[in-house]
Amino acid sequence: MLTLHEVRAGYGRTTILHGIDVTVGAGEVVTIVGANGAGKTTTLRTIAGLVRPTAGRITFEGEEIGRLTPHEVVARGITLIPEGRQLFPFMTVRDNLRMGAYTPHARGRMAQTMDEVMDLFPRVREKLEQHAGSLSGGEQQMVAIARGLMARPKLLMFDEPSLGLAPIIVKQVFDVVERIVATGVTVLLVEQNVFRTLSLADRGYVLENGEIVMTDTGAALLRDDHVRRAYLGI
Amino acid sequence: METFVQLVLNGLMLGGLFAIISVGLTLIFGIIRLVNFAHGELLMVGMYLTWLGTSQLGLHPYVLAPPLVLVLFVIGVLIQRFILQPLLDARDAHVQIFATVGLSTALINLALLVFGADLYATPSSGVRDSLTFGPFRILIGQLVMFVCGIVVVGALHLFMERTYLGRAIRATAQHRAAAQLMGVDVKRIYIITFGIGAACVGLAAALVAPIYPASPTVGTYFVLTAFVVVVLGGMGSLHGAFIGALLIGLVDSLSAFYIAPDLKEVVIFGLFILILLFRPTGLFGLGRGSE
Q: What is the spatial distance between Cα A214 and Cα A158, in angstroms, rounded to a whole number?
């Protein structure tokens, strides 16, 4: 479904990704693990069109998407739920969700999607008329995920959904991610919580200093000595 | 007392005009984050076009309002697309502001070249007739400005709250990167926003031309006042611009009478400096969004 072939990217003169290869198959849950600064967020931002690759190819459903602008990437069916939530603070939760369904493809089915998404997030339903900026961090993360689902994406990318949240909220976030995975949507997940992420994922990539150093099934990576030492502290 | 009430009426009516000019300015500031120094010159262009339409085609200035709104929208779109957008990625954000200053100077000199320094008075065609309410008088033209001010601000408010495009515009102002992730084409939003801002000025031009004569520097007076309104109301706030416009209209009217006509600008700009010193976010300013 999604293929990154020797993708290089960075900011200004600084190269962050030194030619990475990643594939995500339809219906798969794939994760990228790695230390802070390894390039995980840059990888997602490059796929989303926010960072332009300097070399390599990104294809989605057989089409090159590496030169598209962010809104064109969204229109193809790829949605990024960004790190740090990035809600529209002075808009109501309802309007934030409506913005999630901005693409013409999603707009026509907004009412139906809204019902489906609210079933996943009963707590969000109670907050629909509040300003997004007035919610707690955990609630904001739930709205950010709900907003991402409103686009009815074919590929949903999560960037650090549990970052900065209390342990009990982290558990709720992972429960929601699991329920989304169960609906069959293809997921590319970047998370610091390596143990839970690898348990959830079909396959994983280990990214170190902008290069993929290892790839295997989630279960196999969990058993790997290097992964256990470097990321699980075992 | 009657004088006072009459002055308040005059001030509110003038405020309607300031509101139309200021909402355009505050939209452009709040969404594109651009101080548009050419805003007044767009008004000036609109006023000359009104004069041309009335004197050459024999049309009533108010009949010219809809086509002027359209023409100024297109001019705004072209300015954003071909002058400001190429500068969007410039290393220094001030480059865009200097571009609007340059555009302003260019338009003033273009007007000087074409029309000279003479004043061009648009025929007032009944606009200067007055309605009397007991002891009070209101010019028809002023009443029209006031009503149009309310309608424009109300319509823009509904547009921003109720439509997909309006929501996308607000989203872009609040978080540009997140708006892109929702599928919003931010460059297109900027183009439309500048177009709307300029279109407001097109309406203002048709309304003000029968009352003030057009000259190359006519925009400066109105737009300097509009800058005060925008700062007073809170930069980027629609209803702030409306309330601010009415307040400045009142200050204009009352200070011209009770202090001295020549000093009203001193009062207004004194107020401007006081706002900047003591409440830089204005009356309704939320401060900057998350960016």
A: 21
- From the options 3.40.50.2300, 3.30.230.70, 3.40.50.300, 3.40.190.10, give the CATH code of A1-76+188-234: 3.40.50.300
Q: Does residue B197 form part of some domain? A: yes
Contact A188, A43 (CB under 8 A): no
Chain A contacts to B (CB-CB under 8 A):
48-50, 69-71, 74-75, 79-80, 82, 86-91, 95, 98-100, 102-103, 107, 147, 151
- Span B74-126, pLDDT tens digits: 999 999 999 999 988 776 778 888 999 999 999 999 999 999 999 999 888 78
The ipTM value here is 0.92
Rounded distance, CA A122 to CA A115, Å? 10
Contacts of B170 in chain A (CB under 8 A): 88, 90-91, 95
For the entire predicted model, the pTM comes to: 0.91
**In chain A, where are the structural domains located?**
1-76+188-234
pLDDT in tens, B159-216: 999 999 999 999 999 999 999 999 999 999 999 999 999 999 999 999 999 999 999 9
Could B183 and A102 be called an inter-chain contact, meaning their C-beta atoms sit closer than 8 Å? yes
- The structure tokens listed for B94 are 């001030």
CA distance A209 to A53: 17
